[in-house]
Design brief:
- The chain has about 700 residues and is of the alpha+beta class.
- It folds into three domains: about 300 residues, Quinoprotein alcohol dehydrogenase-like superfamily (Methanol Dehydrogenase, Chain A); about 210 residues, 8 Propeller (Methanol Dehydrogenase, Chain A); about 80 residues, Orthogonal Bundle (Cytochrome Bc1 Complex, Chain D, domain 2), CATH 1.10.760.
- The protein has twelve helices and 39 strands.
- The strands form eleven sheets. The protein has a five-stranded mixed β-sheet with strand order 1-33-34-35-36, with no helix packed on it. A four-stranded antiparallel β-sheet has the order 2-39-38-37, with no helix packed on it.
- A hairpin with a 2-residue loop joins β21 and β22.
- The relative contact order is 0.12.
């Protein structure tokens, strides 16, 4: 194994801290390709006609994730075989959509690493490791050390990093061209989303609302990294003035001192662009904290949380907005896929924008004006009975979770999360990865924000013991749904045994491709959902597939690897998927005969704990509350891991001997486990250990 491969593997597998701003190209790598037509503004504009390549994260600015290639179709798809695979050498979640141009593939992985591959053979051209420090950033990450992709423009590959940087790499060598910090390093911002390039501007947002930040989206000059504009998604402290009239108007929809808690509204994923209208569309996230009764105690819509914003890409000026969840209290982000299409609605040709945000409703808007056209629930919804004539949800009594708390659908993971949906212009259908995952919401009556902790305002005490889990008997399932956006109805569905299944790809061959949380990569007939082909992926598949052509051969490829939000924090439900993390890129072609990469073996039966705790029931209870607040998001409820990060039930005697040093002192910070000495005492760590030992015993 070349030296760089060892370094990348050790960093990914162990979350190892490092520092490397230059790509390394050891001997034996595939040679760099001959000069090709540059991916410039004209080529991005004409991407729809460029069937052989996948130049942007959604293939085109419309984000339809539709390929016009038809060599692989409903008749021939049974002949697909694995053409090649590439090992990303990581057990962590892989969420990236690969970019492919002229036989070159660029894919990002955990900790924002980037790899360039030969799209025909899978041979590595170069790799770049941003040298992120697990010691510094692990506690600021909401939902895994993931990255959803890169952008390609004029010989450079652009990537956002978890520590909030935007980096331009030379597309031929991986060398850093420029590197800019897009966030305040003292605040818990992260970047997991893919940049977009519009008009020579690299547009990037960020995440961190759970930790208490103020959201925004920024544009940088693609040539030199100079910031051109920044648009905040929520207002700041009124005493300091407002950055725009739009924010001044938004402030009237907030109450109290929301700015002290950050506000939220982070632009952490989806974007789309209409070059004819010259409008850039971005989705904004949840509030900080989640519960509006805490951040805006006298009510209000809290603009522009959970909204779609139409911006001028030259200036960042707000043209129009549509709020999917006014006053969001349920973590119902509107950062899910934004897809543009031209549809006939009511006998009239309309330029529309479509989104299925977390709140459970599928929205169709006029993308020129922001006019609401229609919305219908695509999963069971209990927090609202429907929407009114203007698209405003009609909240039910069940939406208010103060007091005893409520079981609400959808839950915090949403009816649809970041997993991209696709649109087939031939069938007129949207292919949507849905999930039925209700959650128990309860307001934390003693909420007090803490720096360095997730400040949601929700009470997690019900997740301390399995017997007290109000959602223990709730079935969590998923489904691939073909949705008619004109009629606003489901056309067909494929039920799936668990949630967090992969994004979708539609092709001109009347096919829809999707990976599953249970480790399969599947092709369905787009018109009726019949399963036509499948292959083992060896790990859960979450990301969106792509299709491209090299030397007359059509490939279908996907970056696979189980992990991130649901896998880390859903415990028993995530474990039910039966897979473990093992990052890889898989590329299929007709007649492919490559051997699949190995599947990670299961952990085996849960062992008896190697040590015993003398803590009493009250101490275990206190330890459980601390665990739920600080540990559950990574290690799962009841100390049950989801198949990516360490499952604490399997902790060794040596780990327990060093438990306080690890949890408080950060003894394994270089392995990705940060210390919590600013929030926990040695006695607190002992109580957490007692809880882990109690709930981790075989049942």
């Amino acid at each position: 194994m070349p030296a760089l491969r060892r370094t990348a593997a050790s960093i990914a597998l162990a979350w190892l801290a490092g520092c490397s701003d230059d790509a390394t190209q050891p001997a034996g790598l595939a040679p760099a390709p001959a000069a090709a037509r540059p991916v410039d503004a004209a080529r991005l504009r004409d991407a729809e006609a460029d069937a052989a390549n996948w130049l942007m994260t959604g293939r085109t600015w419309s984000e339809q994730r539709y390929s016009p290639l038809r060599q692989v179709d409903e008749a021939s798809v049974g002949g697909l075989g694995l053409a090649w695979s590439y090992d990303l050498a990581t057990p962590l979640g892989v969420e990236a959509t690969p970019i492919v141009a002229d036989g070159e593939m660029y894919v990002s992985g955990p900790w924002s690493a980037v790899t360039a591959l030969d799209a025909k053979t899978g041979a590595r051209r170069w790799s770049w490791d941003p040298g992120l420090s697990a010691r510094h950033r692990a506690r600021a990450i909401c939902c895994g050390a993931v990255n959803r992709g890169v952008a390609l423009y004029e010989g450079r590959v652009y990537v956002g990093t978890l520590d909030g940087r935007l980096v331009a790499l030379d597309a031929k060598t991986g060398a850093v061209v420029w590197d800019v910090l897009t966030v305040d390093p003292d605040e818990p911002y992260t970047i997991t989303g893919a940049p977009r390039v519009v008009g020579g501007r690299v547009v990037i947002g960020n995440g961190g609302a759970e930790f208490g930040v103020r959201g925004y989206v920024s544009a940088y000059d693609a040539r030199d990294g100079r910031m051109l504009w920044r648009t905040f998604s929520v207002p700041g402290n009124p005493a300091l003035g407002f950055e725009s009239p739009a924010l001044e108007a938004a402030a009237k929809t907030w109450t109290g001192e929301w700015w002290k808690l950050g506000g939220g509204g982070t632009v952490w994923d989806s974007m789309a662009y209409d070059p004819e209208l010259d409008l850039l569309y971005v989705g904004t996230g949840n509030g900080s904290p989640h519960a509006r009764w805490l951040r805006s105690p006298e009510g209000g819509d809290n603009l522009y949380l959970a909204s779609i914003l139409a911006l001028r890409p030259e200036t960042g000026e707000l043209v129009w907005y549509f709020q999917t969840t006014p006053g969001d209290s349920w973590d119902y982000t509107a950062t899910q896929s934004i897809v543009l299409a031209d549809l006939e609605i009511g006998g009239r040709a309309r330029r529309v924008l479509m989104q299925a945000p977390k709140n459970g409703f599928f929205y169709v808007l006029d993308r020129e004006s922001g006019e609401f056209l229609s919305a219908r629930p695509y999963v069971p919804v209990t927090w609202a009975s429907g929407v009114d004539a203007k698209g405003r949800p009609i909240e039910t009594p069940e939406a208010d979770y103060r007091g005893a708390g409520r079981m609400i659908s959808p839950g915090v993971f949403g009816g649809h999360n970041w997993h991209p949906m696709s649109f087939h212009p031939g069938t007129g259908l949207v292919y949507l990865p849905t999930q039925r995952m209700p959650a128990f919401y309860k307001l934390d009556p003693s909420f007090a924000p803490e720096r360095g902790a997730m400040n949601t305002g929700l009470d997690y005490s019900t997740f301390v013991h399995g017997s007290a889990d109000p959602g223990a008997a709730v079935a969590i399932t998923g489904a691939l749904v073909a949705w008619d956006p004109v009629a606003q109805r489901e056309v067909w569905r494929v039920e799936q045994p668990t949630a967090w299944n992969g994004g979708t790809l539609a092709t001109a061959g009347n096919l829809v491709f999707q990976g599953t949380a249970t480790g399969r990569f599947v092709a369905y007939r787009a018109s009726d959902g019949e399963r036509l082909w499948e292959a083992p992926a060896g790990t859960g598949v979450m990301a969106g597939p792509v299709s491209y052509e090299v030397e007359g051969v059509q490939y279908v490829a996907v970056a696979a690897g189980w992990g991130s939000g649901f896998a880390n924090s859903a415990g028993p439900a995530a474990t039910a998927a039966g897979v473990r993390g093992a990052g890889r890129v898989l590329a299929y072609a007709l007649g492919g005969k490559a051997s699949p990469p190995p599947t990670p073996p299961p952990l085996g039966p849960v062992p008896e704990p190697p040590v015993r705790s003398e803590a009493g029931a009250a101490e275990v209870e206190r330890g459980g509350l601390l665990y739920a607040r600080l540990c559950l998001g990574c290690h799962g409820p009841f100390a049950i891991g989801g198949g990516s990060l360490p499952d604490l039930r399997y902790s060794s005697a040596e780990t327990h001997a060093r438990f306080v040093d690890i949890v408080v002192g950060g003894a394994r910070a270089d392995l990705g486990m940060p210390g919590f000495g600013d929030l926990l005492s040695a006695e607190d760590a002992r109580l957490i250990e007692a809880y882990v030992l109690e709930v981790g015993r075989p049942r």
